[in-house]
Each structure stands twice: as structure tokens, then as C-alpha cells.
Amino acid sequence: MKPIWPFRNEHGEGRGVGRRKTAHCLVYSGPGNGKITINGQDWLDFMPRARLRQYVMEPIIAAELLNQVNVRIKVKGGGFNGQAEAMRIGVAKSLANFEPGSRYALKRSGMMNRDPRMVERKKPGLKKARKRRQWVKR
């Protein structure tokens, strides 16, 4: 029977899944020189904002694996911010599978937890999820 944790594929890469709002990502991290690709593109081309790039780098810095791992990310759904936060969780989980010694540092920094907040659905008879028409007394 195959061990359940840590999960590595046939190439020795750790796998992680990240979700945030409606964004989903699948992350593979393996030995390398620090190259990050997102949907087949260089990550600097895919993510224009510096703050969003920082979200992706936080788990790598916390695990002290800078310039030691290559990260491949496939992401879909959501917007830029939701995708970046999903990638942060996915990278943290894949690094924990690739390098089990870094799991404690990643959990302590709060990068392994999913943010459960989702957009509230629109209700019938209302304009939005909670917005109502203005009430008129007379």
C-alpha cells in the first residue's frame, strides 16, 4: 500500500491544491533552481502586481527553499487576487509534501489554511444578496 503523506509523484514533486473564492489551482514543486511557471508562462508575465507576486513567494520564503525548488502552477477561475491567494495555499501544501520538514513553519505562519469566505448568493425579491428596495412609510 502506498503511503498517503507526504504525496509525491513519479518525478519526486510534491503536489498541492489551493482554493479561494472561485479560484482553483494545482501546484507541483520539485527540486530545481527557483523557476516558477503559471499556466505555462513565466510568473512575472502572468502576475503584473508586486503584491500578488509576494503572495506566491511567501510560502517559499517561510520554508527557506528560495532558489532550491521549481514550482509549476495551473490556475483557473476567479480574479487576480483570488487566484494569488489560491496559489499561496497550493504552494504551501506542495512544499509541505515535497519537504516534510517545512510543514511546521508553514502551518505556524497560517499558509495551510483555506479562507472559507465566499460570495453570498442573491435572494429572490432583493436587488443583491442583502440589498432591498427603500421602504416607504406612506
Cα distance spanning the termini:
73 Å
Shape: elongated
Average pLDDT across residues? 91
Radius of gyration: 19 Å
Structure description:
The protein is 30% helix and 21% strand. The chain is built from 4 helices and 5 strands, in the order ββββααβαα. The protein is elongated. It is an alpha+beta fold. The protein has a 5-stranded mixed sheet.
In short:
By secondary structure, the protein is of the alpha+beta class. Helices cover 30% and strands 21% of the residues.
Topology, please?
Blueprint: E1 14-20, E2 23-31, E3 36-38, E4 41-42, H1 43-46, H2 50-62, E5 69-76, H3 80-98, H4 103-108
Parallel strand pairs: 3-5
Antiparallel strand pairs: 1-2, 2-5, 3-4
Entry keywords:
5-stranded mixed β-sheet; 138 residues; alpha+beta
